[in-house]
Design goal:
Number of strands: 9
Shape: globular
Largest sheet: 7 strands, mixed
Number of helices: 8
Length: about 230
Amino acid sequence: MKTDPETFIRANTSLMAPPHVPEISLHLASEAHELWLKTEEELEAIGLPPPFWAFAWAGGQGLARYILDHPEMVRGKRVLDFASGSGLVGIAAMMAGAREVTAADIDPWAETAIRLNAKANGVFLGFTGADLIGQDIDADIVLAGDVFYDRAFAEALVPWLTRLTGQGILVLVGDPGRSYLPREQLEFCAAYQVPVTRALEDSEIKKTTVWRFGLRSQGRITQTLAS
């Protein structure tokens, strides 16, 4: 890394509450921060991958809200917060009574952001930077917020989540209608109107749905992704 992550995060974010999850505070970038205005080339020059951890995405906000409102989903369980970003969903799980939470994100900067955010909320999250897709995991429940934004990622993710579901692991997904959401694989849990920033999304409010990932045949999975 070309700069110290903690120093950079503290200098380029403020501790604030996502609008749909006011119980939680995160180090986030807003229009008032220089980080918001940096181009991809400028970020690359300082060794910073796209800072997904610096924003509270709609899918994560909806999923965190659902967990806080339904703590029985995670109480006493081992939780994997997949593609954790800021750690919002994992923090919500710990606040709701999870036995332990592991945040997983392949962005090395996310580890520092998650540590700072967890500390700000008085909880502890474990962390792994490993690419877990296709791997067995030691968890009772997987929480995945806003992960179906890319076709290739979805094509890898859906079979893995299907296998985990077949092993008895509960998978909950928070999604604001991303292009590659495998709707035929999902069972409705709840829907929310989540305030977001127009500069990040195409509106100021995103309808965000929490789904339970269901077990289907491989043929149905392929058909869903191709539709």
